[in-house]
C-alpha cells in the first residue's frame, strides 16, 4: 500500500458511519445598485486599460479607430464574432481565424485580437471569457500582445455571485482583470508576462 492509499484508508475509517454533511452553496449576492456600467468602466480603467462607452451604432467605428491607433494590419478574429463590429475596418486588414488553428508563432505575430465576452463584473472590473461564440479558445486571447474586448451593457453584473450564476462551470473560463501583469520580482510591475500587455474595452450601451 502506498502512502497515499494508507492516508485515504485512514480517512475513510475515521468518517465511516458519520451522517452526510450538506454544503451550503447560497452565496450572498451583491447589492443590485444602478450605475453598473459606470462602476465597471471605472474599475477597468483602474487596471490601466483603455475604456470606451458607446451606443451600439458606434461600435464598428470605435473598433476601427482603436485598431487604426495601433496600426493593426493583422487581426485575430474568433469564430462567431458579430460581423457588424468589424464593418468599418479599412481594406487590407488581414483576418486570422481559428480554422485551421494558427500556431503560437502566428498568434504572436498578429497585431491583436478582437473578442466579445461571456460576462463582466462591475465590482471587480473583471471580464470573463468562456470560449463561446466571438471569444475563441484561450490561446487566441493569451498570446497576442493586444486584446480589444467588446462588452455589452447587459452582460455586466454587480458582483462575482451573479457572474457565477450566469456561467456554465463545465466550460473553460478565463477571468481577466486588466492587462496581464505581475509584481513578483522586487515588487516592480511588469506587464505582458503571461498574456496581453494592452487591454482595450468597448462597452456597448
Automatic annotation (TrEMBL):
Gene3D superfamilies: NagB/RpiA/CoA transferase-like
Signal peptide interval: none
Pfam families linked to this entry: LUD_dom
Top-rank taxon, per record: Bacteria
All residue ranges annotated as the LUD domain in the record: 106-204
The protein, known as: Lactate utilization protein C
Gene source species: Sphaerisporangium rhizosphaerae
Classification of source organism: Bacteria, Bacillati, Actinomycetota, Actinomycetes, Streptosporangiales
Amino acid at each position: 500500500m502506498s502512502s497515499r492509499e494508507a492516508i485515504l484508508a485512514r480517512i475513510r475509517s475515521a468518517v465511516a458511519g458519520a451522517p452526510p454533511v450538506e454544503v451550503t452553496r447560497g452565496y450572498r449576492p451583491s447589492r443590485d445598485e444602478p450605475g453598473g456600467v459606470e462602476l465597471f468602466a471605472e474599475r477597468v480603467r483602474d487596471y490601466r486599460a483603455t475604456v470606451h462607452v458607446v451606443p451600439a451604432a458606434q461600435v464598428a467605428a470605435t473598433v476601427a479607430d482603436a485598431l487604426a491607433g495601433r496600426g493593426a494590419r493583422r487581426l485575430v478574429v474568433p469564430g462567431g464574432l458579430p460581423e457588424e463590429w468589424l464593418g468599418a475596418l479599412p481594406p487590407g486588414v488581414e483576418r486570422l481565424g481559428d480554422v485551421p488553428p494558427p500556431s503560437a508563432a502566428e498568434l504572436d505575430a498578429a497585431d491583436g485580437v478582437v473578442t466579445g465576452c461571456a460576462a463582466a463584473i462591475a465590482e471587480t472590473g473583471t471580464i470573463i471569457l468562456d470560449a463561446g461564440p466571438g471569444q475563441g479558445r484561450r490561446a487566441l486571447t493569451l498570446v497576442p500582445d493586444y486584446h480589444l474586448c467588446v462588452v455589452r451593457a447587459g452582460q455586466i453584473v454587480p458582483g462575482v455571485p451573479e457572474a457565477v450564476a450566469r456561467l456554465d462551470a463545465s466550460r473553460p473560463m478565463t477571468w481577466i482583470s486588466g492587462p496581464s501583469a505581475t509584481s513578483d520580482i522586487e515588487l516592480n510591475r511588469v506587464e505582458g508576462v503571461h498574456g496581453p500587455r494592452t487591454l482595450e474595452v468597448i462597452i456597448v450601451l
